[in-house]
């Protein structure tokens, strides 16, 4: 009596279907995080139909196409499980469509990130203003001024020119750090 196509499969059924030893399937579970059979009491594994299709795709890539485990891991990471399933079932048109869609999504994300960087830079420029170079050092918000002018410290005294210069340079360094961190995000 055959099972329904939607039925869960035991590890022995999957191993027989794929012509692989059971220990290979257990090993693949450690190498491919996408393979997650349901485990019942006593650790008995039950593979969903999608798990079986993914295993077929992995088997095809490793044994028929000559990929390494790292190569298949990279394909999974870059293209997802549906791509591997399509390759395993021989549906190269679907695999190509999935690959093209992933590439289009990646280009769109890059464009959105670049646009967000431009918006962030414009907002920062609007808020911060443009620093004006001075002969004696960098200048921001008119922080470095004449000897008798300048910001007042908490004790009510004016900062010396040297202290204002140090404060100004520290502020520029912090702004540069913020800009670099924003680029990384």
From TrEMBL:
Any Pfam family matching the protein: MerR_1
What is the name of this protein?
MerR family transcriptional regulator
Domain (HTH merR-type): give its ranges. 10-78
* Keyword Ribosomal protein recorded: no
The record's annotation in InterPro entries points to: DNA-bd_dom_put_sf, MerR-type_HTH_dom, MerR_fam
- Keyword Protein biosynthesis recorded: no
This protein's superkingdom? Answer: Bacteria
Q: What are the GO MF terms of this UniProt record?
A: DNA binding; DNA-binding transcription factor activity
The family database entries (PROSITE patterns) matched by this protein are listed as: HTH_MERR_2
Q: Which UniProt keywords are present, listed alphabetically?
A: Coiled coil, DNA-binding
